Amino acid sequence: xxxxxxxxxxxxxxxxxxxxxxxxxxxxxxxxxxxxxxxxxxxxxxxxxxxxxxxxxxxxxxxxxxxxxxxxxxxxxxxxxxxxxxxxxxxxxxxxxxxxxxxxxxxxxxxxxxxxxxxxxxxxxxxxxxxxxxxxxxxxxxxxxxxxxxxxxxxxxxxxxxxxxxxxxxxxxxxxxxxxxxx
Length: 183
Prior knowledge:
Blueprint (H helix, E strand, L loop, with lengths): L1 H31 L3 E7 L5 E7 L21 H9 L6 H7 L3 E3 L9 H10 L7 E3 L1 H4 L7 H13 L3 H12 L11
Parallel strand pairs: 3-4
Antiparallel strand pairs: 1-2
Helix pairs in contact: 1-3, 4-6
């Protein structure tokens, strides 16, 4: 049921938001010369996929977990994209393709070994990763691997349509929180 919702809503979102996406692509091109950021992440059953985002950091920034990135790597335009959460819009393509869902554990990098181990132990990779979820609502990011994996497992154990829509609603109205750069 949630997959059907993901397909319908990502199609509607991409259609309605296409003028904004195009505008952000153009501005991003002038900001960094490469407006789309693509990074290999662990998906359902640890299958690799490429997460898409609008680029918020300089092109030569090292590919590491966000909390390990220097603040100087973020462009002025990137700060706006992150604060407004507009950097996440390209993930609608990931949702449409089935790599992600609107709700699920945030997909991690394969080199985040402690988080990978904690998530494997708790069965977190059995579900599609998501744009938002319980950890984002509770402001838990990838800098605390054990707590994040425990929160992800709790979300999965209590998974139902009500919580699915609740997390989307809370994210849209300001409670959702992504991985942050440590200032």
